[in-house]
Amino acid sequence: MRKKITIIGAGIAGLTAGCYAIMNGFEAEIFESHSASGGLCTAWKRGNYTIDGACDWLSGSGPGNILYRFWKEIDAFDDNQIVNHEAFSRFVGKDKRQLIIYADVDRLEKHMLELSPEDEKQIRLLCKLIRKYPALPLPFEKAFELYNFFDAVKLTVRMLPVLKTFNYLNGTTIEEFADTFKDSLIRDSLKILLATPEYSLFGLISSLGLFCGKSGGYIIGGARELSKRIEKNFRDSGGIIHFNSKVDKILVEDNRATGLKLMDGTEHRCDYVISAADMHTTLYSMLDGNYLDPVHVNLFKEERLAPSCVQVSLGVNIDLTKEPNCMVSIYPTSETLSIGNTTIENISFRNFAIDPTMAPKGKTVITVRYSMNEYAYWENLYANKNDYKAKKEEILQFTVNQMEMIYPGITEKIEVSDVSTPMTYHRYANTWQGTYLTWISTPKNSKKLQKIKKTVPGLDNFWMSGMWVMPPGGLPVGIKTSRDVIQIICKKNAQKFVSNIN
Fold first, then answer.
1. What's residue 139's pLDDT?
2. Which domain holds residue 169?
3. What is the largest CA-CA distance in the chain?
4. Would you call 164 exposed, middle or buried from its count of C-beta atoms within 10 A (0-12, 13-18, 19+)?
5. Which of 137, 141, 323, 477 is the most buried (most CB within 10 A)?
6. Alpha carbon distance 183, 46 (integer Å)
7. CA torsion angle for 493, 67, 171, 201 (degrees, to 10)?
8. Per-residue pLDDT tens digits for 94-122
9. Residue 298 and residue 445 in one domain
């Protein structure tokens, strides 16, 4: 009789865990509190427009990157669905000069040298690091928990030629690197490129390395297409998903996870439990705080979360197919906006004209994002629905005013609008503090964040997967951590881990 794995959450991590579980001969059943799969990898309809809340680009969308193989193992997309961007971002400064972060390192280098010849040394260093990225060994194939002495030796040998580069990337923040540039436009732009200048430089170089390596493309259909396709693979393989099925407790007998109890009181037994849900909810609610690792406790108490965001989306009766489809940041804005303790002074927006599935022909979806750590503000505001609605209206009007400066006449062309806040992420996906990522990885805490366990002390047959066990998160983390967990369960059952491409 096949052993059964029960999974909490039908986000990318949960769906992936289910796919790999079935590939390896287990029964797999997913319980999802929402009415659809995807979790944070989602989109929603407003009239004839689709608002994407997650998928601007996908790490591992092209051959040459190990994540590409992982996505192919679960049949996440067809290559003909992928469109590679011309640029990662475009910045327009107060002096109207433009910095374009091209997705071609040679073109980027030439452009930056023309923009700021006095920064030649640092520009060449930046581009050298981007070129090096594909050669950096990423030990993703095997779960770290399964590494033996020989695996460690092999990794060490692979790392030796690039150890100096790795140490530099992980030991330097984006802000520190940006401050080495003389040109203010380059300096300021690099700091907001990933929204959080405290991140280790590795995050910036890996992102640009993927883009320049044609492995950071956009999937036609966006977030919903990605999640729906993985869900179909899971279902077609024999997996079962229960929607509108919120988990209340993880059942435990003799310090062994034995199943789940839902909010409706029903119980579902299994051999193994994987929580691909929010870690805080899992540990403190589903397990009642009875199985806590000091590392997990410390993370929630001490580490700073990556910014959440307010996203304003506009469905406009304008064809923007000839406009840049990358993120465009313009600063300063013509006016400022206060949201809690955050003052908005620049606007970053993207149009989705590249994707014909997002809007009727000749029309376009534009999304504007304001990064901030303001969950307490939004939580208090949400207590009064009128105040909450009024603030969203204020943000919408501010955004429309700014877009009018960029595209004169656009106000009259707006057919639908939508404003999501950190409370939206909390309500929709039950994420702690309304975040869509996790803790900020810096040179000071990187080693701590690399040691987050997928298990909890004293509880057998239970694992966690998803963004919380591999900060700062993102869609590739979902597939990597869930693949790892199924490898570990296979090891526990003395069987070889297999995938569809083995």
1. 86
2. 85-213
3. 70
4. exposed
5. 477
6. 42
7. -150
8. 888 999 999 999 999 999 999 999 999 99
9. yes
Task: Please state, in angstroms and rounded to a whole number, the distance separating the CA atoms of residues 73 and 21.
Answer: 12
154 Cβ partners below 8 Å, 6+ apart? none
Examine the domain organization and report whether 207 and 125 are in the same domain: yes
* Parallel, antiparallel or unpaired: strands 256-262 and 364-372: unpaired
| Distance, first Cα to last Cα, the chain | 24
Q: Are 7 and 274 in contact (CB under 8 A)?
A: yes
Q: Residue 283 gets which letter from DSSP?
A: I
Q: What's the chain's average pLDDT? A: 95
Residue 165 — φ and ψ, nearest 5°?
A: -65, -45
Count of Cβ atoms closer than 10 Å to residue 298 Cβ: 11
Are 402 and 346 contained in the same domain?
yes
Burial class (CB in 10 A: 0-12, 13-18, 19+), 308: buried
Spatial contact of 234 and 482, defined as CB atoms under 8 Å apart: no
Span 159-175, average pLDDT: 93
Nearest alpha-carbon partner for 18 in 9, 473, 455, 271? 9
